[in-house]
Structure formats: structure tokens, C-alpha cells
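Morning. Coffee machine broken again, so started the prediction first thing and wrote up yesterday's gels while waiting. Chain of 307 residues, entered below exactly as on the submission form.
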Amino acid sequence: MIVHTLKVFVTVAEQSNFSRAAEMLNLSQPGVSLHIRNLENEFGVKLLHRSSKQVKMTEAGLILYTRAKQILAQYDAATEEIHLLRNEVTGSLKIGASYTIGEYILPRLLSQFVNQYPHIDIQVKIANTEEIAQEIHTNELDVGLVEGEIEYPEIQVNPPFMEDEMVLVVPAGHPLASLRSVSPNMLHDLVWVFREHGSGTRAFSDHFIDELGLHVKRSFVFNSNQGVKEAVIAGLGVAILSRLVMIKELESEGLHNIQIQGQHMTRNFYVLQDKKSSLDTMAVKMFIQKLRQFAHDPDTFTPPSFH
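Came back before lunch.
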């Protein structure tokens, strides 16, 4: 079917690599090459420039890529509408999530979602907020779940679906660890542990420090929440993280949560979609609906029984 061949072409174009495309499609590399060669023979033009390092689309290839994406989206929509006649939701769903959401919220949410909609093919990418926004912008993801502000005018930022509490954490034995709360001026000249730039958590920390005019004595940067946690536990410094990330450590007294007088330490979680996307598929609609149900009452989202 031509739809399958177009999917092969789109995957090669997006991955810029025949081997990665073959792996993603569960095809052999010669099989992928055959699909592309058949397309090029059909249109009578070169669609891809191949080199030892990468694959690039020709001008004709770019035209076909744009139209192929539309054709595949329309095909998926038709498939969903036909399956809805049998009360089934099908199709594919590519979800991107920032680390906090992807590691501490999304697994619980998906455990119920896939149980209710078993015929949806789901792919998940976890990265920092900036990376997820970029892949929404390039239409590589259907839905993005992030914290923090997004500056892409082409991206649709839906109303917040959840509020997240941020906490200042210090290691046991730190001079502030014995205090239940501190004034902002007590936070000068501390050593801080940060997430990387592009992270929503880093953006919150930077804004917090700038707003209070704090002087940072020294800082360390880690590109994961777990790395930041372990660095604080090891005594490298203090950090601001989501309470979702810290629940187990705070309960076991591995870390201390310090209240900051006069500060409202919360941020919002947002759903991102591409404004240019012509189709809001049923799979996307059902996922966002389930997401808002989770945000309203997360305690009802327990793992399915296997008995």
C-alpha cells in the first residue's frame, strides 16, 4: 500500500538516516532502500541526497514530505473514524514530556490510558522543556507536557492542567537543615545545584534567584532530577525541585524541606500542541481528556489489576 511507502519515506526524512528509520519501522535497511527507490522511480526524480554521514531531502523530496505528512494524517483520521463505528479508538500518539512530568506523572496516567484504549500505538519521549517545545514545533510530537513558559508563537499552549509545588531542599547537616523556615536574605552566598538550561526547573530556579537578587557562591549543573537529588544528598549544595520529585527522600529524612518566608513556590504544568496541525485526532483528544481527569483526582489512578 502506498501509505506504507510514504510512511517509510517520512521516517527516513525525519531521521536523516536509513539505519535508524529501518530500526524504528522494524524493516531491513535494504527494504527501506527499496521503498525509497520505488518512490523515486514513480516520480522520476531524486528525493533524497545520500552521503556517508547523513541523508538530506532534495527540493522534490521536501514537497513530497510536506504532502506525505498530510496524507498520513488524513489516513489516520479516516482509520479512527471507521474504528469509532465499532466504538474503538485507534491510531498513533507521540507524547513528549519534561523530566518531572515524564518520570513522576506520565507513567501512572498511561497505565490507565492504555488499559482503556489498548489499540492506540504510543511513543513517549522524555526531555527538558525546551527540547519538547522544539519537537512540537517541528511536528515530531503530537502532544507536549511541560512546565514553564514557552516562547514559540507557533505553539498552542493550552490552559494549565495541574499546579506543581516547588520546594527548597538542603542536605542533612547543612546549616539551614535545622530551620523550618528562612527569610530570603538568609539564602545569600550558598552553593546551588541546578538543572541544565532549557529545563523548566532551571527556569524556575533562575527566576527565583533573580527576583530575590540572591548572590550565588558557586553552582553545579546536572541534566536530570535524579542527578540534582543525589548531588544535594551528597552535600554539594541546595536546590529547588518539584515536591513530586522529592516525596520519598523527604519522607525518609534524606533531605530537608525549608519554607521560604513570603514566597509562593508553585508553577503550572501545560499541554503543548502545534498550531499548524490540521488534525486533532481522537487519540489526542482522549489522551488530553484522561490527563485532565488525572489532574482533577490523581488518587483514583491506581495501577490495573493483573489477577
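The mean pLDDT is 88. Going to sketch it on the whiteboard this afternoon.
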